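Reading a protein record of the kind used here takes only a little practice. Think of the row as the fold of the chain written in a discrete alphabet. A record is reproduced here so that you can trace the correspondence yourselves:
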Amino acid sequence: MLFRNRIDAGKQLAAKLEHLRRERPVVLALPRGGVPIGYEIARALGAPLDVLVARKLGAPGHPELGIGAVADGGASFLDARIINTLGVTQEEISRIAAAELVELARRVAAYRGDRPPLDVTGRTVILVDDGLATGVTARAAIRSLRTRHPACVVFAAPVCAPQTVLALESDFDDVVCTAEPADLYAVGIWYDDFSQTTDDQVITLLRRAWREEDERRQHEASGVRPDPAPPSKSGPPPPHASREGTISFEVEGATLEGTLSVPDHAIGVVLFAHGSGSSRHSPRNRYVAAELQRAGLATLLVDLLSEEEEAIDSRTRHLRFDIGMLARRLVHATDWLSKALPDLAVGYFGASTGAGAAIVAASQRPDRVRAIVSRGGRPDLAGSALSLVRAPTLLLVGGADVEVLELNRQAMARMNGNVKLEIIPNATHLFEEPGALTRVAHFASSWLFQYLTPAERTARTESA
């Protein structure tokens, strides 16, 4: 992989655009995936950030294949070669375009609200996306952008198809890419994490960028250079994962490994307890971990079984249900975190049988573990620990996961502390349905951020 995620890609791309700083550029990002990258570039160059909304027109029956695009402002681009090859009719094009224009208008309203677009007249504009494949959205975007009379437009993306870069050179004043692999295949394969960017994330980053730009202008007007921005008091700090590494420790004769990621200005740390044959490499857990990092939470994804034990468990399936052993190892990892990150309160994110182990471990470390989230978990396996745990606990269960939902309701009835059950409609046990895991990440992030912030810890201490 070339990039860990869009944040990493944005930082790498920003370095290649540093020469434009002296031109005081404007950064326009193509939502949704281009916005996290555009945010990193704007922040690095001290430039204002806005969006330019464009929508791909997918071929009938093959929506992933772009036959053209429409952009905010009414501009459009149609790829005549592909349209003729596929035999797409004008009626079909009109129908597809009409649907995309409705979605385009919704996004413009959601992202920008009443705020007018940035004035780019006579400015150098950096148009950003998370990758360049066919270039149809870029072509529609540049047609819209040229009507606003910028002095110069540079298209920038972390990974680009070389043939498309050549094709766009006549449309843009420059095209800047971090990498141009000969065989692109798909943009997403060049990212370790290419999970979908949500509307909420776009809005959050835009609001943050606009606030930072307003502060920058105030400082410039006063002739004072601003200090580096401190973490926000009212929300998550800027989403920069600055430290990440693999850790290992010995426990009960087994060597356990984990991945520790610590964002700048982290306000808490979340320890993941995997279960039922999963591991720290699980795409679902890694996706949720990335979202927690965006919220300013450090994460430790640790394997509670050694490689040898995992090999045994893959055949017997009994170690994953040894809740006592898993809980002891989770306590050991918690104690390790207490030494490694002593200023950060700990939260647990447990999945499947790992959720049962998390509740048992939390009951044994009540002064350290401040919140728990269970995803499709088996809290019922925690037994007598259910009545002992005091950490606020959020149970996330799929509405279609009928058996596990009933087990969660039974477990909830045995808990005495602050516990909430959140049902994800129509989701099954692994939350593989479109949007289901995004909702899991949203609920988990909100819950853990609420109970792990220093202000919350202070309030809890004062009330004790």
